[in-house]
Amino acid sequence: MIVINLKSLMLELKKNLFLKCKNLVEQKITAIKDSLIQIQEAANNETKSSAGDKHETGRAMAQLETEKLSAQLAEVLKTEQVLTQINPNSKHQLIGLGSLVITNYGKFYISISIGKVEVNNEIYFAISSISPIGKLLLQKTENDSFIFNGRTYLIEHII
Question: pTM of the prediction?
Fold first, then answer.
């Protein structure tokens, strides 16, 4: 009973990590879209006065900001696409996308690169599978070890 309950708790934890990552991405998307709308509205409200150069400079700056935000939005949408590939209910024997990995030096959620995430007063690291440590973790199993930054990590659990 206790083993089954512990596994279901760990699966619930993984779902919470997934939802935190998803919510953070959704917040970034909303913030960028809101900024794009504000820039567009400001550009539309800009009236051409006798200071034509000032007007053109303002529009050029708005265009540059729009391009920068559009690039950021494209990156965040790619991140969101990675999350759509994760099934938070899946259980893993080998470490892959969506795995929660408990090591002797930290807890890693293989998903997207957002860094520290706190769930239930515990710190987890949401990392990409293409990050340096993510690449070392991929395809490993429980009790495997790897060296990262001079430290030997032991994989204690995979969820």
Answer: 0.85
